[in-house]
Structures are given as C-alpha cells and as structure tokens.
Write a structure and sequence with these properties.
Layout (H helix, E strand, L loop, with lengths): L7 E4 L8 E8 L4 E4 L4 E6 L9 E6 L2 E2 L3 E5 L3 E3 L1 E5 L5 E5 L7
Antiparallel strand pairs: 1-2, 1-7, 2-3, 3-6, 4-5, 7-8, 9-10
GO cellular component, one term: ribonucleoprotein complex
GO molecular function: rRNA binding; structural constituent of ribosome
Pfam families: KOW, ribosomal_L24
C-alpha cells in the first residue's frame, strides 16, 4: 500500500464517492485507510461515569484503500509510481505528470 497519512485522496466508490479528504491514519496490514469526513457512522454510547456523558457520537470508520485515489496538486486524482533518485532512495511520483508526491 503506497498511501500514507497526510495524503489528500478522493473516494472512488461507495456512498461517499467524489468526496475528498485527508488520510488521518493508514492501516497497511488490513489495506484500509481512515479519511476525514468519509464513512461517518453514529455510535450510541452509554455513560461510563459522571465525567463521560452518554449519547450519540459521530465517528469516521476506515474504508478500503482500493476505493481511494491520491490527488496530485497539478493533475487531480492519479495513480502512484515509484522512482529512484541518484542515491538509491525510492520516492513516490504521479503517473501522469511524474511530479513527486
């Protein structure tokens, strides 16, 4: 999985298709990403003690990494390729315009 937290992505499928957001957390072992404002659900929670109130809490759940595309600053949603610099260090580039991400 080539997505990292902090990347700007666009949702390609599902109920939130077309919306954009930033990756808050990536789960590479599971192949899922947590995107801000996407896949919002409501959880009904019980009050644990006097300081923690109960009620309905909205939270975001992870979605599959294959359902998002990284957004390049110059050409929009794109795929990612890997390139190597002169020192042998790998870095991510846009497949369309070959600019570093």
């Amino acid at each position: 999985m080539r997505l990292k937290s902090g990347d700007r992505v666009r949702v390609l499928s599902g109920k939130d298709r077309g919306s954009e957001g930033q990756i808050l957390k990536a789960f590479p072992g599971e192949g899922r990403v947590l995107v801000e404002g996407v896949h919002m659900v409501q959880r009904h929670t019980k009050a644990r003690d006097a300081t923690t109130p109960g009620g309905i809490i909205e939270k975001s759940l992870p979605i599959d990494a294959s359902n998002v595309a990284i957004v390049c600053s110059s050409c929009g949603p794109t795929r990612i390729a890997m390139d190597v610099d002169e020192f042998g260090k790998r870095f991510r580039v846009c497949r369309k315009c070959r600019t570093a991400l």
